[in-house]
């Protein structure tokens, strides 16, 4: 099972405000991304993956896939 963006962020000890600032977006924008990661622009998704030290797949693929 994959972690949510919220879980990844918390695991890294970052607040929503800190992540938003580092990505150059408003905190409300980042909050929306945590709820719907599919809305993140590709360039911002790459930056977010780099910031959280995770794979891009961990952001853009659904959190709970069933096979």
Quickly list its features:
single chain, mainly alpha, about 70 residues, about 60% helix
Describe this entry's structure for a reader.
It is built from five helices and no strands. The mean pLDDT is 89. Helix 2 (16-23) crosses helix 3 (27-35). The radius of gyration is 11 Å and the shape is globular. The longest helix has 11 residues, at 42-52. The protein is mainly α.
Poorly predicted runs of 5 or more residues? none
Overall 3D form: globular
Spell out the helices and strands N to C: HHHHH
- Write down the Rg: 11 Å
Number of strands: 0
Distance between the termini: 11 Å
Percent of residues in β-strands: under 5%
Mean pLDDT across residues: 89
Tally of helical runs: 5
Structural class: mainly alpha
How helix-rich are the residues, as a percent range? 55-70%
Oligomer: single chain
Task: Report the sheet with the most strands, covering strand number, pairing sense and barrel closure.
Answer: none
Topology diagram in text:
Layout (H helix, E strand, L loop, with lengths): L4 H7 L4 H8 L3 H9 L6 H11 L4 H4 L7
Helix pairs in contact: 2-3
Could you write a compact summary of the structure shown?
The chain is an all-alpha fold and 67 residues long. The protein has helices at 5-11, 16-23, 27-35, 42-52, 57-60.
